[in-house]
Predict the 3D structure of the following.
Amino acid sequence: MLKSLFNRWVFLVLMISVLVSLRRTPEKIVESETELTHLIFSVFLQRDLAQEDEPSSGSTLYLEYDYYRETCPEAEKIVSSRMARIYEASLLVSAGLLRLFFQDCFIRGCDASLFLDDSNGNKSYLIERQAIPHTTLKGFDKIGLIKEGLEMACPRVVSCADTLALATRDGILLTGGPYYPVFTGRRDSIRSYYQEAMAGVPGPDDNLNRILQLFSVRGFNERETVSLIDLVRVYASDDGTTFRVDFATAMVKLLILGVLYGSQGQV
Ligand SMILES: *[C@@H]1O[C@H](CO)[C@@H](O)[C@H](O)[C@H]1NC(C)=O
C-alpha cells in the first residue's frame, strides 16, 4: 500500500517541495510553470552533479528514483514492511538507524563502508566500525534483518548502502518525521575507513564549533548542520515547519555525498 503512495508523481511533487525549500520559505508554493520546469530540471541537475563529483569510470549508472523497479521490484516494499515490524518491537530503532546512516555517509558518502569488515581476520587492522565516534552505534542487526529479506527476494541485487538509506527514511516516517525522497542505485564500498572516521566524524566530545567546521568541509551550512545534529542527537519532536524542511533538505544533500556508482563499488 505504501508503494502506491511512492509513485513517480508523488515523488516529483515531494522532490519539488524540498527543492522549493532551498530557495524560499516553506509556506510558498510553486506558482508559475516556468518555475516548475526549472525545479524539475534541478532534480536532474542534482543527479548529474552527484555523478560529476566522482572520477569518470565509464559507468552509465546513476542514482535514480526506484532504481530497483526492474531488478527487484519489491525492494522498497520489503524495506518498509520489515521496518514497520522492527519499529513496532523497538521504537528506538529509527534514532539508531539515523545515526548509523549519518555516520556512514559522513565518511566518503553513503557507501555502507561502516558495515564492511575488510580485516580478513587481521586483529591489528582496524575497521571503520571500531573508530571511537562509532562505538555507541546501534542497529547493525536491524539492517541485517532487512537485508536478509531483500536477499531472499532478490539475491545480491540491493546494496547495503541503499538498504540503510531507505530504512532510515522509513524509520523517520514511522516516527512522524518529515518525508524526503531517496534516490537509489548506490554501491557498497570495497574498503572501510578507520583513520578517516577517527579524524572526520564528529565525536561525542566535540563542541559545536568543531562540528560546524567538520560539516562545512562537506558543504553543509550552519542551519542544515544544526537541524541534522538536533535530530541525530536528540531525535527531537520539534514540529516546527522550518526545522522539518531544513532537515529534509540536509538529508537530501547527505544522500548524494560521494556516491559510488557501478563498478566503483560492490553489492
Ligand atoms: C595486519 O594489519 C596491520 C595494520 O594495518 C598491518 O600492518 C599488517 O601488515 C597486517 N598483517 C597482515 C598479515 O596482513
